[in-house]
Amino acid sequence: MTAYLLERAWLPSPDGGRFCDDVLVEVEDGRFTAVTPDADPPRAIPVRGLVVPGLANTHSHAFHRALRGRTQRERGTFWTWRDQMYDVAARLDPETYLALARATYREMAAAGITCVGEFHYLHHQPDGSPYADPNEMGQALVHAAREAGLRITLLDTVYLSSGFGAAPEGAQVRYSDGSVDAWIDRVSGLEARFGRTSATEKLGAAVHSVRAVPAADLEAVAAWVGDRPFHVHVSEQVAENDACHEAYGVTPTRLLADHGLLRPSTSLVHATHLTEDDVALIGGADAFASFCPTTERDLGDGIGPSRQLHDAGARLTLGSDSHAVIDPFEEMRALELDERLATRQRGHWSAPELLTAATIDGHASLGWDDAGSIAVGQRADLVVVDPASPRTAGAGRDEGAVVFAAAAEDVQRVMADGRWIVEEGQRYDIGLELEQAVARTWEEGR
Ligand SMILES: [Zn+2]
């Protein structure tokens, strides 16, 4: 058992959470065994700063990290960005993917992220044929998370068509298993390897989008998914809604609901362009909505109805998606700030609500009900934020400072499952690892 005395930590409370001083936490086998505020223990390791629970990144495509700073230079739309993304997708192999994902996950860990939901669809070789081990790419991601020290929920993604009724083309042949039965075979083989009890790794499932999986196959996916975490890109683009209407006469959300895929373990990623009926369906299903505000900004997607979804009963979570930015503090405040732009009113989301989205609800959407809170029995994750940096100094030592002032660079140390995975002074090394992994992906400097 190890005892820490946290100078100031965010603990659960009936109204969501509050900061308490001098919190003694005892950690054993990766979990909190005691949490006592206002303690004065004779022997405990002091941890100075503002301490919050581990943050969950609910939507990641690790390989998109290679696009940062490169795709932002030109004009275009989501669809022209996608062409550049496919260029990276065509290049990677299991070895370069492992290196890029590990460096990306280390960047996440340094930003306070202790769990990632990896929405994984880059399954096969560049010509579309499976690797000798058909799950080699997925395994590379799991290894990358293990080496970076954070938990992963691998959301193995079914992707069968390029658009409504169109065959996969170009880089998309790497994504497709050819049929829903082949996807089930492959992902079942992967699950046998995970077991269902791994301490730091979980397997979930995803449908890339209603563009990429014919409606006739959705029920087979739903049957396999069961109570596993299930994620799906929904209504990120108006064009997707229009095409879905044309193909099926309903919205993407309604289509998923009609095929048994809107349930409490479902996360709708983006959920940007929704009808009132969609919002009511998602809230009524007690589902999650995974917003990715910095990516949605970067791609010019639009601003989704985050508060309406919350008020209808949905639980909001946050993801860095394309990794144009990896900063969960920026994602948290973006929910509120984007609502201000959309409504010209201030004060939609409170700081405790935003911290809840980034911690407890984020973890729950990835299947980790035992993480995201500094409480007895929970996984021992701690994120130490500097309250005296040039950004946070004078901002108040509370939720407002964490959510509206702090940035990823203010994270000093990070513990996941009882182990310190990030220590001060590691940023240089992480930058170097990223530099090398991205250069290798693009085959630069050779
Ligand atoms: Zn995505």
UniProtKB/TrEMBL annotation:
GO function term, MF aspect, one: formimidoylglutamate deiminase activity
The keyword Hydrolase belongs to this UniProt entry's keyword annotation: yes
Keyword Hydrolase: yes
Enzyme Commission designation: 3.5.3.13
Any coiled-coil regions, as ranges: none
Domain Amidohydrolase-related: 50-420
Uppermost EC category: hydrolase
Key words of the record: Hydrolase
Protein name: Putative formiminoglutamate deiminase
Source organism: metagenome
Lineage of the species this protein comes from: unclassified sequences, metagenomes
